[in-house]
Design brief:
This is Dihydrolipoyl dehydrogenase. The chain is an alpha/beta fold. It has 13 helices and 21 strands. The strands form 5 sheets. Strands 1, 2, 3, 4, 5, 6 and 16 form a 7-stranded mixed β-sheet that branches. Strands 17-18-21-20-19 form a 5-stranded antiparallel β-sheet, sandwiched between helices. Helix 3 crosses helix 4. The termini are far apart. The protein binds flavin-adenine dinucleotide and nicotinamide-adenine-dinucleotide. The site of flavin-adenine dinucleotide has 38 residues, from strand 2, helix 2, helix 3, strand 4 and helix 5.
């Protein structure tokens, strides 16, 4: 039995920021992850590889838009080269993380699978046998995995893992991709592959894609998506089968049995938390969304924290990182909840083409709570940068409390959405008002000018 101050189960965004902070504070730290590398699923098969593909799609779209505006010619995708570029980015970041790890003496990454033996004891199964640790503190950050629904033939589908992992299973662009699930992964991937030239049919169970996002924002986003993405809602998929072309999907829609054939099917109906063996047995409560935590991210055992996707609160990388740091601060504070994660101001972007982003309270949530909002508006149709890029769709909306005009939330649809929403989120989390935003003169000609202009639309 080896003794450590902190052991993290997982080495992703929910784990390594705390691991480094505590190691720098002189604690002995072991991170355990079967991947044997840092950064979890975000770098392995999530944020980074998917956005690497997206940027290629953005460049392709931009060139097409400018084919008669000075960038003549016709570009086409070389899928294999694009994958090689994606793989190279992943490899480069793994190297960078290895160097970061090597620079801190009292932290070690152990390749293996961890399980709880008791509230202070963890066993790790490695390729060379089992190692046991007595841990003063534990951060449970085992993340999430692809959810496979009990649909006959589901095993014939690919998942985001197969598209985005290093040396992915999917090596060439399909002619017709069928996507089951209209959430973040389904819609993002549909728009990237459509930009590369694939036909895509997306099958969504409910009446709205991106359920959970404000319906008014979704209604503005979907008509702007590539017409090569055909969205069918209200679909109940009954089976996936092998066919001569590749795959056949059978489903019921509007009371009728229908079927579709495609080259491949992407199953993207959600992810579920990964709960290490022994978690429940040692008395940690696991609810429908994941491990249950209090405001300081502590489980039923005050020295065991659960951060990131495993607690299901906001399954995004930057939310996991912030939670990890909250746990580190509370550990340094002697397991007193001195720091809290702010789950109400996490900027969220769907990186479709175009992207849509939101933060804080949006009209749909306000209506559900019986709250009134005052809306500041700015349309990209009048924006200098949007006009230069010939991408004038969408705009910025800011939502303020009627008394005092405090910023409660906002959304952005169109250019630079993922960047602008961070600035709006920072303003909302800092308690700024429309007056504060209106008097700050942001840079010309950037789309960030639009934030001040949206605030000034009220005066
Ligand atoms: C395709 C895709 C695209 C995404 N795009 C974005 C995006 O653009 N922006 C964004 O913010 N988020 C995005 N996400 C979500 C983001 O990847 C996650 O929110 C983030 O990775 C969560 O970090 P985590 O540390 O909680 O978990 P993970 O990254 O899942 O890391 C958990 C780690 O724990 C390890 N583990 C599991 N069980 C054990 C065990 N028993 N013992 C030891 N180790 C274990 C796993 O191997 C894994 O490496 C995307 C996800 C996917 C799948
Ligand atoms: N840009 C980003 O930040 C980003 C990108 C990708 C993934 N992610 C994270 O990964 C998580 C998982 O993404 P996801 O897209 O797999 O899940 P999701 O929960 O976002 O969406 C799943 C969708 O599938 C639908 N669905 C469920 N069962 C179905 C069925 N049987 N048939 C048809 N549709 C069905 C749901 O109604 C939902 O719309 C996201 O919640 C998000 O946290 C984030």
């Amino acid at each position: 039995m080896q003794s450590v101050d902190l052991l993290t189960i997982g080495a992703g965004g929910g784990a390594y920021p705390a691991a480094f902070r505590l190691a720098k504070a002189g604690r002995s730290v072991v991170m355990v992850d079967p991947k044997g590398v840092m950064s979890g699923n975000c770098l392995y098969e999530g944020c980074i590889p998917s956005k690497a593909m997206r940027e290629t799609a953005v460049m392709l779209q931009s060139q097409r838009r400018f084919a008669t505006r000075g960038l003549s010619g016709s570009m086409r995708i070389d899928y294999a080269q694009m994958i090689a570029h994606k793989d190279a980015i992943q490899a480069r970041r793994y190297q960078q993380h290895a160097a970061e790890l090597a620079a801190v003496p009292n932290i070690r990454l152990l390749q293996g699978v961890a399980r709880f033996l008791s509230p202070h004891e963890v066993a790790v199964t490695t390729a060379t046998g089992e190692q046991c640790f007595h841990c003063a503190q534990i951060i449970l950050a085992s993340g999430s995995e692809v959810f496979a629904p009990p649909i006959p033939g589901a095993h014939l589908c690919l998942s985001s893992h197969d598209l985005y992992k290093p040396d992915p299973t999917l090596k060439k662009l399909p002619g017709h991709l069928i996507v089951i699930g209209g959430g973040y992964i389904g819609l993002e991937t549909a728009t990237f592959l459509a930009a590369f030239g694939a036909q895509v049919t997306l099958l969504q169970r409910g009446e709205q894609v991106l359920d959970g996002m404000d319906p008014a924002l979704v209604a503005q986003l979907t008509p702007l998506l590539d017409p090569r993405v055909r969205i069918l809602t209200g679909v109940d998929v009954t089976a996936v089968e092998a066919s001569r072309r590749g795959r056949r999907v059978r489903y019921r829609r509007k009371g009728k049995n229908e079927q579709l054939e495609g080259d491949i099917v992407l199953m993207a109906v959600g992810r579920r938390p990964v709960i290490p063996a022994g978690t429940v047995e040692i008395g940690i409560a696991v609810g429908k969304k994941g491990v249950e935590v209090g405001a300081g991210l502590q489980t039923a055992h005050p020295h065991i924290y659960a951060c990131g996707d495993v607690n299901g609160r906001v399954p995004l990388f930057h939310a996991a990182v912030r939670q990890s740091l909250v746990a580190a601060h509370n550990i340094l504070g002697g397991n007193q909840p001195l720091d809290y994660a702010d789950f109400s101001h996490v900027p969220t972007t769907i990186f479709t083409l175009p992207a849509a982003a939101y933060v804080g309270i949006t009209p749909d949530q306000a209506a559900a709570r019986g709250m009134a909002l005052v809306t500041g508006r700015y349309d990209f149709a009048e924006d200098a940068r949007a006009q230069i890029l010939e991408r004038t769709e969408g705009g910025i909306r800011l939502f303020f409390a009627p008394d005092g005009l405090r910023l409660l939330g906002g959304w952005v649809l169109g250019i630079d959405a993922g960047h602008l929403i961070g600035q709006i989120g920072m303003a909302a989390a800092s308690g700024l008002t429309a007056y504060d935003l209106a008097r700050f003169a942001d840079q010309h000609p950037t789309s960030a000018e639009g934030i001040g202009k949206a605030a000034r639309s009220l005066f």
